Amino acid sequence: MVDTATIPIVKRAWPAMGSVVSVHVHDRFESDSERVAVDGIIDEVSAEIERLEAMFSTFRPMSIVSRIGRGDMHLLDAPREVTDVLDACAWLELASSGAFSAWRGDRLDPAGFVKGWAVERASRLLDRAGLRHWMVSLGGDMQFGDPPDEGWRVGLADPLVPGRVARGLTVGRGAVATSGTAARGLHIDDPRTGRAATAWASVTVVGPSLTWADAFATTAFVLGAEGPAWVENFPGHAVIAIDRDGRIVG
After folding, report:
1. Which domains does the chain have, with CATH numbers?
2. Are strands 134-138 and 19-25 parallel, antiparallel or unpaired?
3. Which of 33, 99, 102, 158 could form an SS bridge with 110, CB 3.0 to 4.6 Å?
4. Edge-to-edge strands of the sheet including 134-138?
5. What pLDDT, in 10s, does the model give residues 168-190?
6. pTM for this structure?
7. Which residues partner with 243 through β-bridges?
């Protein structure tokens, strides 16, 4: 969660991708018309996330990913976004020795990569519009623009005690992503075994890009004890992991 002591000038939220997207914009505006224009930009962010969800959702039978998974569409006929995502997933599977995969058994499901990637991609619309001080969140995974003061204040939820903050962070432009058991229990499967990963209660990754912070958090959660060190091989990334006894590493 983000400290809301500084009330954003514009704040919007809506359901997407099985969770809630939230956009905060802290820029100061000279007129009401500038503020109204920001609502239009956020509409574009919403439309982009919806477009990507329609392309990648495994819950929509006619999504591109569902059609590829059934064999109704060849990957070479898919939009560039799909081939880019699946190429990235294939690289991550190789880099993690199989701890990450876009496949669940025989079912194509790149959700572990797509959510962070989609939010980061949509958030670029805010930068392109000239906004500076903004945050876009999906289910608690956050991509930040420049902070409005000394930094964005983020509270990491305690995965073992509902409503408790395990640790506070102050971050600048970049991303924070957490994979864990707080919201959905043991739901992250190890592709190598087909069983739920159980070593950690949560893994949080801080880095420049939500695409990779989110994917690395999921991968580190599956990797278990070696996960934090694996993430820290990638420059600019830091890890905070909480084990199932509540001990914090990082």
Report:
1. 10-249 (3.10.520.10)
2. antiparallel
3. 102
4. 10-16, 19-25, 134-138, 141-144, 174-180, 200-207, 238-243, 248-249
5. 999 999 999 999 876 666 779 99
6. 0.92
7. 200
